[in-house]
């Protein structure tokens, strides 16, 4: 097991270094003078310019600059935001819980629904139900989620007035951020109705963000189930006279879950990319919206740090999924 | 011909009686109703894009001050003058969608070409030289795959700046790893087959082996990938446009059209709905075509259903 984890790590480290290189290159490929950009002065006097170059380390050779960047990274230094003059790491991790909360809610919506839809489609293969579910799944998979979000806002917020249009909670509540997760923080606070308000705000963005994972999970569950339902042990179970439900849930679904779990793990990337769009539509104060705002305001240290941190998160979760997969399935652990 | 085969008159069949590969492919493709409808839609879209100046009732940026936010024809107050209504600047939405199809198809086509062609070369190199070069290529691709496509595109555009050319470049870069991996995987399975070994023994050079011997046999998955890449490109381009990082307004790019529409969500649903529908239907059609192509080109996968 230990060797297995080490082997996975050995693959991850070069990828991480690659992402640092990408993030490093990002700021050096921006057209224009980085000093003018970072210091933001138009008519710099040459003395000051030189001092700034030196202070930012830009007068050193590139490999030294990269080395300093890397050693700064390992000490948790990702630079300072131009907009707020706060450390990028601090800004990121203040907003990150909002994105995580949204992503978890999205998966909480997508996973059970996707599993049920996939199982139903597989067990009614070739019927109208199957075609309907698969058609809906392909539509969901093709969905421009930024538009989907607008459609849902139009229906549920504007016409029906069921859900709020934007933000994480109604303005009248002042919730102290203890964990950064609004649902937990509202429960911890003693403000009446705050939890419900937070839940109200979460529903629509979670559905929007969960749509593509839902479609992917449904498709995957269906094909995995179809594969399993052909197996001999299913016929055996049927011959033993087990109930249909028991065969499907206990005998088939359990064995079909493996590829589905992998696909669920792989949704992290989809979620974080989707968060950029979903958070923009719903003014959700997470890292996705923060990143887009940073690009809009040419806050390059934040862009650089944001890309790096989001990339790192994805690598870490994928590593975790890989390792978990090895824990569940010994065949993978021992394969070379 | 097909009837001959079914009625079992094999004995009388000569070699010419076999359906040509193209015909065989078309019959398999046509069996998939969704894919056929999608293809028909796509042909219409391409024709509309090519003939935009003839088909569009108005110029895409012509502003009709007397008809701001005019509703579509079937609604109260709508007229045949603006079939799908007008936007906040009095521009005809249908005309903008037709001209927008030009942009979307252009972006899709160019970024697929710009990712598939280098992807094929890199993938073949990685398959033929698996020792050092292959490892190096695949490592770089792994890094690019680590970031979700939209985020990588956002990063590229953040550096290069928004605009049509940079959108195409960003999406081409984003799609590159998938084509490299696919070409490599397909080429690796071909490499050990007898016909490749035979032509190697016959003295074919590496370049000839790569492009003349192996590549034609890797085309099926690549064609499918090109179709699916096309749909991903259109979707990502629209997302970039929506975020204000892609093609800039007043260009009638579908995503950019949506960017400003949020303000009219309460008053003019058609401004919000139409461009998104165009994106959804086009992406859906390309995905259906991709499924149909895969089934028709690779009968092995079809059985999996």
From TrEMBL, chain A:
It is a multi-pass membrane protein. Coiled coil: none annotated. GO terms for cellular component: plasma membrane. The chain crosses the membrane at residues 9-30, 102-123, 144-162, 198-218, 256-277, 307-328. It holds the Pfam family BPD_transp_1. One of its GO terms (molecular function) is dipeptide transmembrane transporter activity. Its main location: membrane. Signal peptide: none annotated. Residues 96-325 form the ABC transmembrane type-1 domain. It comes from the Bacteria. Keywords: Cell membrane, Membrane, Transmembrane, Transmembrane helix, Transport. PROSITE patterns: ABC_TM1 (PS50928). It is found in: Cell membrane. Belongs to the binding-protein-dependent transport system permease family. This is ABC transporter permease subunit. It comes from Chitinilyticum piscinae.
